[in-house]
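Hi R.,

Here's the chain you asked about this morning:
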Amino acid sequence: MNRTAIIALILVAAAGLIFFAWQQYGQPQTSSGLQLGILFPFTGDAASYGVKGRHGVELATDDFNRSGECGRKLVPVYEDSAAQTETGLAGFQKLVSVDHTPAVIGDIVSSVTLAIAPTANRTQTVLLAPTASAPAITQAGPFIYRIWPSDLEEGKAIASYAMSRNYKRAAILYMNNDYGSAIRSIFSKVFAVGGRQVVSSQSYLQTEQDFRSALTKLQSTNPDVLYIAGYYADSAAIVRQARDLGLKMPILGATAIEDPQFLSMAGSAAEGVVYPLATGFDATSTDPHVASFVKEFKSQFGQTPGWVEAQAYDAVAVYCKASGTIKSAPTGPEIKAALDNFGTMHGVTGDIKFDENGDVVKPVRLRIIKNGKFTNLET
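And the predicted structure, written out as tokens:
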């Protein structure tokens, strides 16, 4: 083999190695900007959350690309988790291995966030959850961050409310996933002291629609109050079926019910349901930052934003503040370092500051459905 042929073979091999390295480790810097992974449920029972979250991301992308706060043009890359662990993991792996995103905002639901956390840590991809709340996320790994408080706070708040109303016997229906199981556990632990009892605790699958048998069973335990630990669709079905069966006891819900579809699905049966809201967002706030966000959102989407939209917006804001301090195309470890030295950011959901576990701490408000509307509970 002559010298020219040898040199040609070396060049071809080198080109192959470069291409392989780019495929495996290439930076997400493209001619159009910096790619940011977004993993939300766009199909399935939690699809409403995903659509709302996408609106928040889109508005944030417009705002921060216009202001240049990200340091470069931001390009969201969307994948559907369907609020299912296997689907979510496949979407996350695609964002990391194909799109080479150094950070992913997701998921909205805790079960998917926990399922993808090991892969995020192994690949050193920052995972920033906008609304995932399961207590286990606190110890999910060094590359996992969230801007929503742990379920510990939500569960404590609604249990304390139940105690303040002098309820003695509580029945619980909870979705059998990380979210439902966690807040059920915290509620039970806080409530069942001083002579109070959880007289019935039944789980259900996310796909279930008929709860009459479970409701009839818990009715026989003579509870003072019913606590539903689930999402908006299943909670609406439970509330409606409970009232159809003639159950008169007060009903408590979870943060996840604050969605217009809960009101339309539950109808008049939703009246009087009390629930905690574990976010600092208030669309009626006079804070100039919040008022500007609400006005701009209404202009772009024709409706008032809720907590999902606000949390998604702030997740992008957090990412932009972190990546904006990095001169070159950021890597996962560089973004992590920026988040570990993040300080405090005043977002539309309140002040955001991470503790040593990547958690944020915010106060919990109590809300009630009154005259067919979500409103703050006057205590």
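The chain has twelve helices and 15 strands.

Let me know if you need anything else.
M.
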